[in-house]
Amino acid sequence: MIQYLNKAILFSLLLFSLLLLSAMNSHASPSPTNPSLDITLESIDDSRQALYEFIGKGQWVILNIWGTRCPPCREEMPELVMFHDEHKDTDAIVLGIAIDFPSYGYAKKDEVAQFVDDYLIDFPVLLSDANITKKIGLGHLEGLPTTYIFNPSGSVSGMQVGGITKKIIENFIEKNKAAPLGSANK
Predict the structure, then answer these.
(1) What domain range is 102 assigned to?
(2) Would you say residue 12 lies in a domain?
(3) DSSP letters along 117-162, please?
(4) What angle do CA 126, 96, 156 make, to 5 degrees?
(5) Mean pLDDT throughout 42-71?
(6) Sign of dihedral through CA atoms 115, 120, 126, 129?
(7) In a domain, 56, yes or no
(8) pLDDT value at position 184?
(9) Percentage of the chain modeled with pLDDT above 90
(10) Please, which pLDDT band fits residue 179 given cuts at 50, 70 and 90?
């Protein structure tokens, strides 16, 4: 009788654990993998460029959303420039989207252009506001800087809020190169 009771308790605990895990997973926000890239943004040279011109073209794309007056954005910028310069001709590029900080409104073109000159940024920089992440299906912008890493097929493989380094990006790409396109080892 005791053995039967122990099995019943064990089975009940196992069932409860599975139900609890299932309930937790049903409330987790889905990870964005296929954002809408059919959105055109203004660049600092007055041209307009669509995100699909950069993303899903066979290279990793480091989409960095930043502001000119954001201290962590200023701190990470030399790392992003270095990464872009070392990888742009082979396997990855950086694409910047500047928004105003601290208002999170539309970026001021003259401030962004001066920032690009000051930091010797040679990767493409587009202008927008904090709603850009919602517009392309990546959810609410949680803070600056925010970096999304798109794999060569154009799916989001990683995301980080806060400063990022060249080494973090390189390690992430190396770890995820072997993963089937469209999936990631986050």
Answers:
(1) 40-176
(2) no
(3) HHTT--S-EEE--TTHHHHTT-----SSSEEEEE-TTS-EEEEEES
(4) 115
(5) 96
(6) negative
(7) yes
(8) 52
(9) 74
(10) low
